[in-house]
Amino acid sequence: xxxxxxxxxxxxxxxxxxxxxxxxxxxxxxxxxxxxxxxxxxxxxxxxxxxxxxxxxxxxxxxxxxxxxxxxxxxxxxxxxxxxxxxxxxxxxxxxxxxxxxxxxxxxxxxxx
Amino acid sequence: xxxxxxxxxxxxxxxxxxxxxxxxxxxxxxxxxxxxxxxxxxxxxxxxxxxxxxxxxxxxxxxxxxxxxxxxxxxxxxxxxxxxxxxxxxxxxxxxxxxxxxxxxxxxxxxxxx
Lengths: 113, 114
Hints:
Helices cover 0% and strands 51% of the residues of chain A. In chain A, the strands form 3 sheets. In chain A, strands 2, 5, 6, 10, 11 and 12 form a 6-stranded mixed β-sheet that branches. A 4-stranded antiparallel β-sheet of chain A has the order 3-9-8-7, with no helix packed on it. A two-stranded antiparallel sheet of chain A has the order 1-4. By secondary structure, chain B is mainly β. Helix content of chain B is 0%, strand content 53%. Chain B is built from no helices and 11 strands. Chain B starts with a strand and ends with a strand. The chains are: A mainly beta, B mainly beta.
């Protein structure tokens, strides 16, 4: 069974600095998708960024980028120029075929002004 | 924009009551999901559905059932609520196609069973 591991339950970053959240996964599939979701306090979970496994180029969305290492089964999220609004729970997720997303346990990110 | 709505943001029920949590999506998604979210445990899949009248057990289906009579609506039922079902419940929907298959989430229902 596929598993997703986020080894950092909590992290903090100074405003305007850069932070990297880690995620590793285990799969025997070759074709799959990886996602980072953000859940702000008491607010709806939203998609931050996605990566197709067949693409070598790392995905970027404004201040958010990923470091996708397929051989190492690693999918980290980098947040540049951190803002107070980035404070949230971040979940890494995996999907292969038409199956439900498999989520990690999440990383709580605090942003210090 | 995809919209996933849940019938209540907060709900308080008594032990033994039958509880209905409703979820509606407006983007004609085939797939719908119910998760519960607990601190330190992340999101755990309860049930999901790939089509009307279809349902599949997730990782923790015990004590729950679901109903999907219409494509846009997916209901989670707690037949006899217990205190260990106090949790945040999240509904989500997605398209079949994995390439466009990111899940869209509702705002959640925080259920307290006393």
